[in-house]
Design goal:
Beta Polymerase, domain 2
Length: 117
């Protein structure tokens, strides 16, 4: 499955289960780990688990099962590794504490400056 198709599939699964504040970061050229990161919030540990499970099930159904899933037991932060797309589902307080958006925004800004030089 192509990266954009996988991203759309994961995004739709998050929306269908009422994921909050879904954000996408294109991290190609910034890391070798993945191409796209999706970050979403859930309102509770059950909601976070449900969102992650929806992504896993949608991808399995489409023939692209995840390479791994971490954090399901606790439900504060679940990471779904789809290869070219990594999905982070977090409770709001965890998302705020780790501030992944700031990390990738700062990296994007630095990349943009170095490309202009």
């Amino acid at each position: 499955m192509q990266t954009d198709e996988l991203k759309q599939l994961a995004w739709q699964a998050l929306e269908d289960r009422k994921g909050l504040d879904i954000a996408e970061y294109d991290v190609r050229g910034m890391t070798t780990v993945t191409d796209i990161m999706l970050i979403a919030s859930g309102t509770s540990d059950r909601h976070v688990k449900s969102l992650a499970d929806a992504v896993v099930m949608a991808c399995k159904k489409a023939g692209s099962p995840p390479l791994g899933v971490e954090g399901e037991r606790e439900g504060e932060w679940v990471l779904v590794d789809l290869g070219d797309v990594v999905v982070h589902v977090m409770q709001p307080r965890i998302r705020e504490f780790y501030a992944l958006e700031k990390l990738w925004t700062v990296t994007e800004e630095k990349r943009g400056r170095s490309e202009r030089v």
